[in-house]
Amino acid sequence: MKINSKILSIPPYISTSWENVISLQVEETSGKLIIFLKNNAAVSIPNLSKDLINEVFQVHTNFLESLSKPSFSPKPQMGFNLGVMPQGFIQEALGPIMGHDAKQKNSPDLPSDVINKVASVAKALSVEIEGFNLPSDEPHCNCPYCQIARAIQGKQNPNKIPDIDNSLKETEVLEGELKFREWDIKQLEKELYDVTNPNDVSEHYQVFLGHPIGCTCGKSNCEHIRAVLNT
Questions:
Q1: Cβ 117 vs Cβ 111: under 8 Å
Q2: Residue 151 in contact with residue 122, Cβ under 8 Å?
């Protein structure tokens, strides 16, 4: 005779695994143990003691209960289920960064992609800072913890400088202003112009655009005449 978590063996009546057993029953009149099997057979076993019958029922009950429990531990998945993290896990895992540090109140902003990912994960999982039993952020503090706490809660960084409004049109710059200015030109009369070197005021000429066109430098088609014509 052998009765354990896997086998039910009571010679010469039955020897099978518990997987083949559907249910157990005791006849009230005869006291026989009736074992119903998956193949639709029923095995009747007489003359069993009350203690042995109780043992058979108890082992079968344990077997049925084991079927409702997972027989293996699930493999760890990538990422974390923040909603079921035990208390204190965050503090132990992330250490000193998960606490306000006044000494780092003027820390530079964490990379925007890090802050955005924290905010996105918190929003997707409906995570709140209170759920981790961690202190809230301190106003106007920019330590790493306060930045992360604000990201989880969806708060704006009070120290952040507003972004430049890229919608503003750039100031238009005339093409002529980008060119190197070689001559200062001033109109003296209707067709008479004064041409001066801005870097050397002693270099001074007058250009006449009447008939005939001429320049006091004595050259025809000189750069001074061209400078006046280009204006």
A1: no
A2: yes
Per-residue pLDDT at 137: 74
144-153 vs 112-125: helix crossing angle, rounded to 10:
40
User: Under 8 Å CB-to-CB from 74, ≥6 apart: which residues?
Assistant: none
Q: How many CB atoms lie within 10 A of CB 223?
A: 14
Q: Is the pLDDT of residue 112 over 50?
A: yes
DSSP-derived pairing of the beta strands 214-215 and 7-10: unpaired
User: Residue 189: what pLDDT?
Assistant: 86
Helices H / strands E in the chain, number of each: 6, 10
- What is the arithmetic mean of pLDDT over 205-211? 87
pTM above 0.70? Answer: no
Burial of 26 (0-12, 13-18, 19+ CB in 10 A): middle
